[in-house]
Description:
Blueprint: H1 2-48, E1 49-53, E2 68-72, H2 75-79, E3 86-90, H3 107-118, E4 129-136, E5 141-144, E6 151-153, E7 156-157, E8 178-181, E9 186-190, E10 212-213, E11 217-226, E12 232-233
Antiparallel strand pairs: 1-2, 2-11, 3-4, 3-11, 4-9, 5-6, 5-8, 6-7, 9-10, 11-12
Amino acid sequence: MSSDNTTAPDTVLPSRQRRRRGVWLLLRDVFVIVLIAVVVSFVIKTFLVRSFYIPSGSMEQTLLIKDRILVDELTPRFGGYQRGDVVVFRDPGGWLPPAPATPAQPPLAQAADWLLSLVGITASDSDEHLIKRIIGVGGDHVVCCNAIGQVTVNGTPIDETPYLNLAPGQSAPQPVPFDVVVPQNSLWVMGDNRDHSRDSRYNMDQPNKGFVPLGNVVGRAFLITWPFDRFGTIDGHHAVFAGVPAPGAG
Length: 250
């Protein structure tokens, strides 16, 4: 009996130490994994892909309110943007109403929101951006409208029916006349829900005269991720613009 009493503490103590050491090693590994995930997510969000949600109906039926989308930030840096691309961009100035003041979040809530936004679970900056379809790129002459209500680009009428959201019996959107030449390194953008979109046409009195500087463009929207029943790619409908000549051609 005496020998059992003297050896038991010597065997129990190292076992407890091993368990404590195992817990700390597990916590360390979890911390490292989370840290790596945050860093990778930050790099992805900053340079590759970002998540946004759709707050308005200006792009219906291509995009619906509360759709969640992914935006490609990387590819356009090498290949540029094409007519038909659906793009997310920061307000060039005066397009959006002033944001209402919101009470400051506690530091812990701010940190949680930031972490969730890195992995695309939230899209807290969506309300600071807009999403539209590119109709004209730098140098394009864009005019509304011809006799049947079509927009022309460099003198060529474009048939936008594949993506326009028109009311039953409506063959073309309500005309909002304009005649512009898009500056280099800028875009002319319009919503697919043309009669309910405050786009380039309605911002010609702003400092950028309705044009979106390329520096304000976040990237090209390419995928609907939520809700699941709408999961799929976002069509650029580039065939609509296939017959448009290069600016100044002819």
